[in-house]
Amino acid sequence: MWTSLLDVLLDMDPGHDDALALLTALPLMRVLAVTAVAGNQTLDKTWLNARRILWAAGSHIPVIPGHAKPLLRDLVTAAYVHGESGLDGYAFPTLPPPGETPHATEYLARVFAEWPRPIAWVATGPLTNVAAFLMDHPHLAHQIASLTLMGGSLSAGNITAQAEFNIFVDPEAADYVMSSGLPIRMVGLDVTHKALLRRDDLDRFLTLRRPLGEMLFRLFSFYGRHEPDAGEKGIPIHDVLAVAALLHPELFTWKTTAIRVGRGEDRDRGQTIPVMEGHPVDVAVDIKVSAFFDWMWNALGAYR
Ligand code: BDR
Ligand code: CA
Q: Mean pLDDT of residues grouped by 10 in the chain (304 residues)?
């Protein structure tokens, strides 16, 4: 059957919330490939984790490894959130080795050059792969329909007082991307800290088919453990909101501003600062929380 699904590329560092983002995207869009980047864990682990999620979903789309470290800095991981594997909480089976793959930059160049239409890009990890692609292949930027990214904050941070993790890890990449001229939607902590998944709702994962439902239940039971407010308020599922923002911008309130990224050290590093001059970015500043969750559970219903 012919369908008019949106063509999408996903760049991610799975990661529990990346995993859920990937699973909500698969039934709703034509996901052409997933590229993995180092962030929540090292590249070998995020690449493996992306393959694990696709295994659970029964999907065979390509998973291509990208950059193993930020453009200029050493890698900082979030093992304290996602565990040693980057996806702790579920005992995945051993998957077959992936075989020979090109590097993500080369692979993306081929896809963008050959695809008959511009492709929407969603990035839910540090922006290293995206920036490196734009630096190497600026002539293909017109094939990027839009970039929707999870990252940044106009209010408080989650790794320093002001900085959000994805932007903090590779601020040079983020600054390059923010001023690249691409149509960008920035979905950051201003909204992801409002749409919290309540502990009571984890049981809903168990209504999904096996092993996927049980996997999500176990993964998110683990992921919630470090959140002191998880019992009362719930846990953030940041990256899922980027998928929602691409398909349903009406679920969000947007503020348009140029963004400069702090590239210094300490408190400056990774801050996303609204500035008057520069390329405008649409920043999500509020979200219709219950409509967002209706959308998410409806998307996951594809796995019943
Ligand atoms: C972001 O950092 C990562 O730990 C999550 O996967 C998300 O992309 C939230 O700050
Ligand atoms: Ca992520």
A: 82 98 98 98 98 97 98 96 96 95 98 98 98 98 98 97 98 98 98 95 96 97 78 90 98 98 97 97 98 98 97
| 17 Cβ closer than 6 Å to some ligand 1 atom | yes
Domain ranges of the chain: 7-303
**Tell me: domain 7-303, CATH 3.90.245.10, correct?**
yes
Q: Which of 124, 155, 158, 193 to mutate to test the pocket of ligand 1 (most atoms within 8 A of CB)?
A: 124
Tokens 């909480």 belong to residue = 89
Atom number, ligand 1, closest to the C-alpha of residue 124: 8
Catalytic positions, please?
A: 238
pTM (whole model) above 0.85: yes
Terminal CA-CA length for the chain = 21
CA 12 to ligand 1 center in whole angstroms: 10
